[in-house]
Amino acid sequence: MFVNFSRESFYPLRKKLNVLDIEKIIYKQIINSKIENHSIFISNISSNNIFFENSIIFIDKKIKQIPNSKNLCVLITDNLDIFEKSKIPSKFLIQNLNECYYQLTNHLFIHDDNIDYTDEFKIINNSYISKYATIDSSTKIFNNCVIGRGVNIGKNCIIKNGVIIKNAILGDNIIISDNTTIGSNGFGFDLKKLGAKSLLPQLGIVHIDDNVHIGSNCTLDRAKVDITYIGKNSMIDNLVHIAHNVVLGKNSCIAAQTGISGSVTFDDNVIVGGQAGFAGHIRIGKNVIVAAKSGVTKNIKDNSVIAGFPAIDIKEWKKNIINQKKNGHK
Q: N or C: which end of the chain has fewer CB within 10 A?
């Protein structure tokens, strides 16, 4: 499902780091460490979903799976169990994972929250197209669009007026309607350290698969490390927000003013009514129907039909409404 991508195409590499560099940068956070190879240089970051060569991975206390891909050279974690059991060659047990992620990723990559980030554009038909973007000749770009560094757009796509696309890969036969933004910053931060200068770098991308329609004035945030994904044949209405790390399965249908929080996964064939909201880090099963104005706060099983806040089975929700009316609630 996830497309292969080169992170450097979107975020220029500032500097490769060896293990001793990493130790110097985060020394104030280190509780314990084990270093087996000083000569390897780190040039990428990985997630639990996608592993890159010569990369560093950040694992927090919530994650129980131990990643041991041969591509991983350095582990940064605040999880003592994973630190002790992991076979990754070099590893650090640290105090504050967000602080280490912030420091190391800013040393590795230049991104658009850095003052020194640059792009170079050509003006084509009243739109700004990065010279580092790749767009198939059969695709139509309307007026006043901005297509940024590294973007790849496939065949027979229609990109309407005022669209911004950055940090994204688009398949074929896609329509993006007016004033939508693809690949914007995910809302990554630490509540203990707020402010624009403390935003956690968002270094992933958006991948929109074939035959997807996205309405006007939508925002699709790029992932923190890997991919925000929109599955084949999906239909997204106007004014929909899709946060970082969200995965929509194929044939998703999302009505207007819906908000989907970070790291939500939709399986295939999910239908969502207007003004629904989804809490983060939950999974919505296959063939689920979510009624308008629902607030979904937990995992939903396959083939469910839900409504209300917190969203429950629609038959149970209707019974509750009837009982409320019997008890004098309007």
A: C
pLDDT of 197 reads 84
3-state secondary structure 56-96: EEEECCCCCCCCCCCCEEEEEECCHHHHHHCCCCEEEEECC
Active site residue 244: yes
Beta sheet of 127-130, edge-to-edge order: 121-124, 127-130, 146-147, 164-165, 181-184, 219-221, 241-242, 259-260, 277-278, 295-296
Task: Say what the pLDDT of residue 329 is.
Answer: 60
Is pLDDT of 205 > 80? yes
Of the three residues 61, 77, 108, the one that is the final residue of a domain is: 108
Cβ-based neighbour number of residue 195 at 10 Å: 7
The pLDDT of residue 327 is: 67
Clarify whether residues 36 and 175 are in a common domain. Answer: no
* Distance (Å, whole) CA 292 – CA 133: 38
Burial class (CB in 10 A: 0-12, 13-18, 19+), 219: middle
Tokens standing for residue 116: 């020194």
What is the per-residue pLDDT across 248-268, written as a single tens digit (0 to 9) for each?
A: 999 999 999 999 999 999 999
**Of residues 111, 241, 244, 329, which has the active-site annotation?**
244
The answer to whether residue 322 scores a pLDDT higher than 80 is no
Give yes or no: residues 182 and 238 share one domain: yes
- Residue bearing the bigger pLDDT, 61 or 156: 156
Q: Note whether 307 and 251 are same-domain residues.
A: yes
**Cβ atoms < 10 Å from Cβ of 37:** 11
How many domains does one find in the chain?
A: 2
pLDDT per residue over 271-303, tens digit each? 999 999 999 999 999 999 999 999 999 999 999
* Stated pTM of the model: 0.93
CA distance between the termini of the chain? 47
Same-domain check for residues 201 and 94: no
What CATH number is attached to the domain comprising 60? Answer: 3.40.1390.10
Q: Which domain holds residue 260?
A: 121-319
Q: Provide mean pLDDT across the span 39-52.
A: 91
Residue closest to 292 by CA, chosen among 269, 311, 316: 311
Whether residue 278 is contained in a domain is answered as yes
